[in-house]
């Protein structure tokens, strides 16, 4: 019996020593900075938020546009960011960003945000690959 415990402890030490220790990979996302005009809204920190989530801005903007049922254009002036063709409330945008984050960024297995999206060309199926726990989730 003592042999089994020694073997278990030895194996446990081996696994522990071979683990790649990771920092907590959760990310803090800034609140969207909006400039509201009578018939449009400019989202100025869109690129920073997309970068913080490690996602392509076109994917996020399409999701937000679909959720809000509003069109957008990318400003030629990088400081203006994205221009929505309607007035957008900050709380609505925050809610949709949170929904996007929970559905497409946060790992469904370990809850960390260090993930990547892989799109399969032939099948059209996308997977979320966690860089922390190595889980693969279909999205």
Any key phrases for this structure?
three-stranded antiparallel sheet; 2 domains; alpha+beta; Defensin A-like; 4 helices
Explain this structure.
By secondary structure, the protein is of the alpha+beta class. The chain has 2 domains: 25-105, Defensin A-like (2-Layer Sandwich); 109-139, no CATH class. Helices cover 37% and strands 19% of the residues. The chain has helices at residues 2-18, 46-52, 57-68, 90-105, and strands at 34-37, 40-43, 72-74, 82-84, 115-119, 126-130, 136-138. The strands form 2 sheets. Strands 1-2-4-3 form a 4-stranded antiparallel sheet, with no helix packed on it. A 3-stranded antiparallel sheet has the order 5-6-7, with no helix packed on it. It is elongated and about 75 Å long. The N and C termini lie far apart (46 Å). Mean pLDDT is 84; it is low at 20-24.
Number of domains: 2
Give the terminus-to-terminus CA distance: 46 Å
- Please give the number of β-strands: 7
Which outline best applies?
elongated
What percent of residues are in strands? 15-25%
Q: What is the overall pLDDT average?
A: 84
Can you list the strand order of the major beta sheet?
1-2-4-3
The helix content, as a percent range, equals 25-40%
How many strands, which pairing sense, and closed or not: the largest β-sheet? 4 strands, antiparallel
- Secondary-structure content class: alpha+beta
Query: If classified by CATH, what would the architecture of the largest domain be?
Result: 2-Layer Sandwich
